[in-house]
Amino acid sequence: MYDSRHTRLTKWLDGGIPPAQVAEWAGSSVPVPLAAYVRCVEGQPPDLKRRLEAAGDLPEPPAAC
Fold first, then answer.
1. Global pTM?
2. Rounded (10°) angle between helices 19-26 and 2-14
């Protein structure tokens, strides 16, 4: 039973479902799935970076010294 739950929560987080929604569906607080499944989520940083760049919200990197 736990393996099915783990797989489902990981797939939801990996699929981009907001952590608050995953926590609600899992019957827990937001920190619980984030702490338990943070190392299982893959592929989101490049997508998030593209979304931030498209919205113009990505900060400029600091100038090299």
1. 0.56
2. 160
